[in-house]
Amino acid sequence: MEKFAVIGNPIAHSLSPEMHHAAIHALGMEAVYTRQKIDIEQFNTEIPLFMEKMEGFNVTVPFKERIIPFLDSLDEFAEKCGAVNTVVRRNSKWVGYNTDGLGYLAGLAEIHPLRPTDSVLIIGAGGASKGIYLAIKEKIGSRVVVANRTISKAEQLIQGYPEDAALTISEAEKQLASFSVVIQTTSVGLLKTANETPLSLANLRPGTIVSDIIYNPKKTPFLKEAEEKRAIIQNGLPMFIHQGALAFELWTGQKPDTEIMKQAVLASL
Ligand code: ATR
Question: Is residue 197 within 6 Å of ligand 1 at its C-beta?
C-alpha cells in the first residue's frame, strides 16, 4: 500500500486527503493519503521518522522552507521559489518540487489562459505570492506589478525582473484600470479579516479577470466587490485542485481526474 500525506501545523483543516482519496479511488489505486501534524519545535527529529514511511507528501505552512535541508535535490523551479510543497521519493532519493504557482496558472486557465500581453497586478508579497509571481515570469512572461502593505517585500520579490514594478496599495488602487488580471494573494478575507478587503476596487474596469487564492469562504468580500464591478471572478479552489493534481502526477505518473477531485473538496467544504 503506497502512503502519501500532507504535513503542516495546524493541519486539521486541510482538505487534501479528501481530494487525493477521490483521485486514488477513481483510478482504482491501492494507496492512502493522511494528514500529519508535525510539532514545530520537534520538526528536525520528527521529520526523518515520518519520511521513512512515505512514498511522497505535500508540505504546507509553516514547513515549506524548513523541509529543504532534508531533501536530496530540488527541481529547478522549487529552487527558484526557495519553497517546496511536494516531495517525491525517487530511487530512494528525496526530490522537492513546488506546484503552487503552476497549479495557480492551470486553475486560472479554466477561465483565462494567461498571455504574455496580459498586464497583471498581484496583491501581496508573501510565500503564496512568490510562487505565483515566479510561475508567471518563468512560464508566461507577462509584465507584473506587485502591491503590498509592506512595500519593501514587493520590491524584493520583483528583483531580477526590471520590467516589473512594486507599488503601495494606494498607488495600485489608482492604477487599477490598467490591469487585465488582478490576483489577490494575501490572507485578508480569512478569519479575523473575514469582512475586509486588501484594496479598493473602485477603479476596476468591467471584464477584468479578478482571482482570489482563498476558497473558504467561497466568495471573499474582495471577490464580491469585483463581481459588483462586473469583473470575471475566480476563487482559490481551482488553484488548490491543480496544485494537488500536479503533485499526484509527480508521485504516480498518472493524471488524476480534476473534476472528481473538485467535487470531493466541494462536498467537504
Ligand atoms: P503566505 O505564505 O500565505 O503568502 P505570508 O508570507 O505571511 O503568507 O504573507 C502574507 C501576505 O498577506 C503579505 O503580503 C502580507 O502583507 P505584509 O507583507 O505587509 O505583512 C499580507 N497581509 C496579511 N495581513 C494583511 C492585512 N491585514 N492587510 C494587508 N495585507 C496583509
Answer: no
